[in-house]
């Protein structure tokens, strides 16, 4: 069996291509089943997000497994196999495990260290489990990857520092106020950056948000989408008298918030702190406003400095997490190797305990007058003899798991002790294919 990871991501395909190779939510389940029914595939999990579509599979052969996965993707999205090959990264064995660990921990994301991917991996794994397309290998490996990512996020600062401008804007507000859930915010503009700012404010618990825009209809539409308030640009001066946070991102050529307007507003404020964050280029907020007391005015360069510093912090944390990955790969390999040993050890124990039980039955026949206490003592000592005799053979069997010729040596081990172990990894059986009426059509 071989692990294969095939990935279409932000490095291999632009956004226009990635949009064309994303499984819709309602198609993931059937896609998992379709892939599982494919030749050479023993287990599979499909991950599909806005930035990546990936197939993780256990296959009986590397080359055929890779081909049939790429053919499956081509058929699913209307591409030629050669086109799919050009936009995919293929990882096999340890590199496939490494890739899964990197992705789950957020080390392979567009935004380094983002945590959303962990939930998406978990959900993809659960869906595959529900559809019974996972088995012994993936039930263990994906749980290991999810546990690893959780621990990495808890023990490092990789997700604690803002690395997007809109998120950094909200984080700057927190540096001034501490908690901002009870603050009043104004978002000037109704474009993409403004919407991201709204989402980050909502994510930080802010409920009092007003969108201000020159075109009120756009403000109304965005406000309705996120269930916040809207107002025309002409109301900005009045709103500033009670606001705590202002994030501005418009395409205006002149200042939206001038020094004169802010001086007028200051007459009605009670020296409360006001955070102004200008993420527009050219700037929306007059830089002279820096001179006013209790006003904290930040522009995009200030935010960039914070983002760059935070990105360095995230990279340091990412390097720390990356150093832990080889140990995780080794642990996975040890677990896989032990799969072949465990049934052998179990068979050896079962045979030995069977001999002990037969011996006790013989003793019962030959010494029928034994008391219950005497019988328990004899049973305990015979089991102790068995366990001591098995100690070294079991140790030797475990050491065979890491031997390059482990299969041959385990077979010899079974012959020596005259035991027959169950197959460590049972490939899926041939599955009957049925038509829509349920009639059996044949076997694969």
Automatic annotation (TrEMBL):
Enzyme kind, highest EC tier: oxidoreductase
EC number: 1.2.1.70
A Pfam family assignment: GlutR_dimer
Record site: Important for activity: 99
Residue intervals of the Tetrapyrrole biosynthesis glutamyl-tRNA reductase dimerisation domain: 325-419
Pathway(s) this gene product operates in, as recorded in its UniProt entry: Porphyrin-containing compound metabolism; protoporphyrin-IX biosynthesis; 5-aminolevulinate from L-glutamyl-tRNA(Glu): step 1/2
Residues the record lists as binding substrate: 49-52, 109, 114-116, 120
Domain Quinate/shikimate 5-dehydrogenase/glutamyl-tRNA reductase: 171-305
Family in the record: Belongs to the glutamyl-tRNA reductase family.
Function, as annotated: Catalyzes the NADPH-dependent reduction of glutamyl-tRNA(Glu) to glutamate 1-semialdehyde (GSA).
Name used for this protein in its record: Glutamyl-tRNA reductase
């Amino acid at each position: 069996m071989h692990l294969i990871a095939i990935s279409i991501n932000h490095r291999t395909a632009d956004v226009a291509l990635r949009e064309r190779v994303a499984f819709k939510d309602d198609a993931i389940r059937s896609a998992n089943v379709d892939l599982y029914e494919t030749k050479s595939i023993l287990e599979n999990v499909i991950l599909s997000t806005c930035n990546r579509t990936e197939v993780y599979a256990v296959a009986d052969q590397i080359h055929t497994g890779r081909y049939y996965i790429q053919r499956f993707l081509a058929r699913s999205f209307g591409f030629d196999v050669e086109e799919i090959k050009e936009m995919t990264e293929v990882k096999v064995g340890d590199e496939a495990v490494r890739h899964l660990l990197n992705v789950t921990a957020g080390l392979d994301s567009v935004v380094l260290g983002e945590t959303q991917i962990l939930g998406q991996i978990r959900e993809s794994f659960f869906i595959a489990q529900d559809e019974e397309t996972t088995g012994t290998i993936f039930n263990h490996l994906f749980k290991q990857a999810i546990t690893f990512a959780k621990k990495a996020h808890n023990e490092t600062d990789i997700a604690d520092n803002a690395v997007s401008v809109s998120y950094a804007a909200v984080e700057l507000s927190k540096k001034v106020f501490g908690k901002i859930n009870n603050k009043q915010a104004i978002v000037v503009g109704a474009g993409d950056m403004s919407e991201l700012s709204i989402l980050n404010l909502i994510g930080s618990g802010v409920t009092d948000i007003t969108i201000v825009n020159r075109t009120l209809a756009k403000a109304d539409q965005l406000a309705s989408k996120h269930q916040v308030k809207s107002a025309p640009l002409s109301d900005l001066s009045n709103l500033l008298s009670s606001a705590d946070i202002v994030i501005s991102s418009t395409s205006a050529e002149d200042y939206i918030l001038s020094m004169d307007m802010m001086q007028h507003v200051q007459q009605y404020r009670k020296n409360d702190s006001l955070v102004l964050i200008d993420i527009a280029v050219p700037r929306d907020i007059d830089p002279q406003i820096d001179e006013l007391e209790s006003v904290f005015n930040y522009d995009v360069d200030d935010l960039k400095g914070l983002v760059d510093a935070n990105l360095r912090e995230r990279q340091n944390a990412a390097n720390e997490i990356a150093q832990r990955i080889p140990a995780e790969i080794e642990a996975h390999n040890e677990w896989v190797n032990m799969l072949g040993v465990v049934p052998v050890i179990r068979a050896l124990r079962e045979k030995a305990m069977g001999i002990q039980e037969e011996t006790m039955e013989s003793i019962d026949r030959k010494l029928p007058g034994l008391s219950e206490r005497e019988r328990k003592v004899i049973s305990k000592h015979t089991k102790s003899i068995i366990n001591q005799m098995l100690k070294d053979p079991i140790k030797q069997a475990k050491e065979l798991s890491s031997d390059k010729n482990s299969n041959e040596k385990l077979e010899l081990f079974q012959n020596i002790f005259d035991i027959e172990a169950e197959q460590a990894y049972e490939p899926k059986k041939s599955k009957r294919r049925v038509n829509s009426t349920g009639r059996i059509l044949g076997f694969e």
